[in-house]
Amino acid sequence: MASPFDISGKLALVTGASAGLGAAIAVALAEAGADVACHGNSRSPEATCEAVRRIGRRAVGLTGDLSQRATAERLVPEALAAFGGLDILISNAGTVRRRPAADHSDEDWDHVIEVNLSSVFRLARAAGRSFLDRGRPGKIINVASLLSFQGGITVPGYAAAKGGVAQLTKALANEWASSGINVNAIAPGYMATDNTAALRADPTRSRQILERIPAGRWGDPRDVSGAAVFLASPASNYVHGHVLVVDGGWMGR
């Protein structure tokens, strides 16, 4: 009997897979049996593709700036063309711009909303349409944040976008669950990635954060990969519209 976490032969697209959470998720999907289209923005995803290939799975690298609408609209068709199908979409790519709200420019706001929210919708729309057209189930996993629940400090665009990701996840799940399409999200806690480099470099802020995390450490990208495999696998077939927190206990504090 196959493991409920086995996704052998499934075809996945992971955005923001050049490094950090996306790279860890792409490799974990490959370890569970999937072929992976790895997207990168300013950084090539080729190193992640090579890691996937070393596991014995197929990989293709896709590139493009998700602050540009056209990029989100072409990535799913490109993955479909490369693999001949698609079963799993993981919208992980994200960005943050830190500035006090009174000084937060329209350009910063628009950029963050486009990358972190609007592109997530466009990617989900394209993947959902593909799943519906072929009449087969699919998995869509969006990467939300602790700031889907909390306001944060000096990141109004990021907090607004990640709150929107949580609500978008629920809205799409309501619409597509009856068609066998699972739409869920992962809300990572404070992870040691490029997006948190400024926080980790600030001794006071880093200490304050660590003091609140019951696990007593910053998260590692691999800490999120198991949640991604679960939500991409048959083990989660009855999970719809859920935002799964992976935060070392932060939200329970």
Descriptive report:
This protein has 253 residues and is α/β, with parallel strands linked by helices. The protein has one domain: Rossmann fold (3-Layer(aba) Sandwich). The chain has helices at 20-31, 46-54, 69-83, 106-134, 156-176, 197-201, 203-212, 222-232; strands at 11-14, 35-40, 59-63, 88-91, 138-143, 181-188, 243-246. Strands 3-2-1-4-5-6-7 form a 7-stranded parallel β-sheet, with helices on both faces. The radius of gyration is 17 Å and the shape is globular. The mean pLDDT is 96.
- Overall helicity: 40-55%
Mean pLDDT: 96
Counted beta strands: 7
At the fold tier of CATH, the topology name is Rossmann fold
Structural class by SSE content: alpha/beta
Order of helices and strands: EHEHEHEHEHEHHHE
Radius of gyration from the alpha-carbon trace, in angstroms: 17 Å
What is the CATH superfamily label? NAD(P)-binding Rossmann-like Domain
By oligomeric state, this entry counts as single chain
Main sheet overview: 7 strands, parallel
Count of folded domains: 1
Tally of DSSP helical segments: 8
List low-confidence stretches. Answer: none
Which second-level CATH architecture applies? 3-Layer(aba) Sandwich
Strand order of the largest sheet: 3-2-1-4-5-6-7
Strand content of the residues, in percent? 5-15%
State the end-to-end distance.
40 Å
Global shape: globular
